[in-house]
Amino acid sequence: MPQQATYDSEADILYVRLLDDETVARLTFLDDVRIIDHLEDGAVVGIEFVGASDSVDLGDVPFAQQVEDLIGRSGHSFKLLV
Predict the structure, then answer these.
(1) What secondary structure, in 3-state letters, does the chain show?
(2) What mean pLDDT is predicted for residues 24-31?
(3) Tens digit of each residue's pLDDT (9 = 90 or more) over 54-63
(4) What are the b/e assignments for 52-82, b being 16+ CB within 10 Å?
(5) Are 61 and 67 in contact, with CB atoms under 8 Å apart?
């Protein structure tokens, strides 16, 4: 699966995948609505934004510019907080 941003409207979750077809080894919770998926070596696989329809907070998110670009290319419109 290539780098992309996908949105599940029923769950209101935006997922931004940064690495292709990688298995998540651990999670880092920035807060209740932002979860970072990591490989065993710490590399970032992707970032999950819960409640994305309210806003997407990119503060303290690794690779924030790349994440913002992928969200922009997704065709979905979210209020981005940077």
Answers:
(1) CCCEEEEECCCCEEEEECCCCCCCCEEEECCCCEEEEECCCCCEEEEEEECCCCCEECCCCCCHHHHHHHHHHCCCCCCEEC
(2) 96
(3) 999 999 999 9
(4) beeebbbeebeeeeebbebbeeeeeebeeee
(5) yes
